[in-house]
Amino acid sequence: MDTAPLQDARETYRDAVEADVPVLVALVESAYRGDASRAGWTTEADILDGQRTDPDGVRAVITAPGSRLVVVERDGAPVACCQLEHRGDVAYFGMFAVRPGSQGGGLGRRVLARAERLAREEWGVREMHMTVISVREELIAWYERRGYRRTGRMAPFPYGDERFGVPRRDDLEFELLVKELG
């Protein structure tokens, strides 16, 4: 897998390495949990307390075969990241985070488009999958505007496993979203 940095007009894209783990955990947490996450629109602070990820989870994405964690930097500082995992005929997109102060300016759209292109060109997949907490209507609508469709296929939220957070409500589940990359 090519790990050479890719330059965009505004950002540099590269594969994460194990030394990036602490800063990437902090980035993901800043986008989703706690009061700091409320500066952006992707916060989960109203539905989940606790952590979004941990060093072991980030390290696993970085080191797993067929997986990569793409880091997006501006001036050498991480501002976004996303996971891509090769799963046979499809790619899985996850661990997507944009620093709250950088949200709303098109960075997320550029990262998602780059991830789709990487999956299609490097793995030859024609479909991207992701799971989103089903009550995250605004986030799901954002993905729908980018060509993802709801499948109605649900998976249970891992209640009782604090590695994924501490739920503030009892109706959480994940919905599979799919996009044809053709």
Structure, explained:
The chain is globular. It has helices at residues 21-32, 55-63, 107-123, 137-144; strands spanning 6-7, 12-15, 48-49, 67-74, 77-87, 90-98, 127-133, 149-156, 166-167, 173-180. The chain has an 8-stranded mixed beta sheet with strand order 1-2-4-5-6-7-10-8, sandwiched between helices. Strands 3-9 form a two-stranded antiparallel ribbon. It contains 4 helices and 10 strands. It is an alpha+beta fold and 182 residues long. The chain is 25% helix and 34% strand. The longest helix has 17 residues, at 107-123.
Briefly, what is this?
This protein has 182 residues and is an alpha+beta fold.
Which terms would index this structure?
single chain, 182 residues, two-stranded antiparallel ribbon, alpha+beta, 8-stranded mixed β-sheet
- How many distinct helices? 4
Largest sheet composition = 8 strands, mixed
Spatial shape: globular
Helix content: 25-40%
Question: Residue-averaged pLDDT, rounded?
Answer: 93
Q: How many beta-strand elements?
A: 10
Order the strands across the largest sheet as they lie in space: 1-2-4-5-6-7-10-8
Tell me the structural class. Answer: alpha+beta
- For the termini, the CA-CA separation is 22 Å
- Backbone CA Rg: 15 Å
Kindly estimate the percentage of residues that lie in beta strands according to DSSP: 25-35%
List SSEs in N-to-C order.
Answer: EEHEHEEEHEHEEE
Taking pLDDT < 50 over at least 5 consecutive residues as the criterion, the unreliable ranges are: none
